[in-house]
Inverse folding.
């Protein structure tokens, strides 16, 4: 059985002349929200997990906070630029192909989080709020065998306002 957890980055600084979209970091509120959400989903964490994050600072910081709270080694977080840019469901599954962990926690951005969530199960997501977390399980033994709408929604947790 395989699991995929989707986590949208938490609240970040606004875009400005000195701060382009890619380089935005989490705000104090974003940091606090990420800690709360990591605690909320702690029971779904397994040691047979890989963290995969967008290389954008706000997503990576969110992944690092979850790692600290859950006991995952920050040094083991895999950073990938493609998670910042638009990617398709098929491209994500192709990237995960051959990975051996039971679970992958993917830290990224909208609209890809909402798009991917809507393709992992029959549940439709109109939006994926900042720091929302959705977990899906699959009867597949390999990530490459996952196809559209074959996941079972384990949970969908929105952060407190």
């Amino acid at each position: 059985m395989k699991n995929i957890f989707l986590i949208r980055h938490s609240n970040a600084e606004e875009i400005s002349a000195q701060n382009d979209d890619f380089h935005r970091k989490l705000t104090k509120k974003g940091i606090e929200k990420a800690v709360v959400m990591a605690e909320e989903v702690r029971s779904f964490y397994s040691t047979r997990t890989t963290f995969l994050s967008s290389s954008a600072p706000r997503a990576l910081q969110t992944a690092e906070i979850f790692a600290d709270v859950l006991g995952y080694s920050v040094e083991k977080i895999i950073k990938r630029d493609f998670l910042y840019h638009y990617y398709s469901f098929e491209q994500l599954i192709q990237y995960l192909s051959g990975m051996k962990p039971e679970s992958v926690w993917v830290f990224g951005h909208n609209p890809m989080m909402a798009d991917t969530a809507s393709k992992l199960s029959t549940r439709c997501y109109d939006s994926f709020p900042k720091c929302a977390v959705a977990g899906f399980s699959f009867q597949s033994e390999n990530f490459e065998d996952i196809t559209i709408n074959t996941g079972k929604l384990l949970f969908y947790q929105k952060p407190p306002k």
Summary: The longest strand covers residues 2-8. DSSP finds four helices and six strands in the chain.
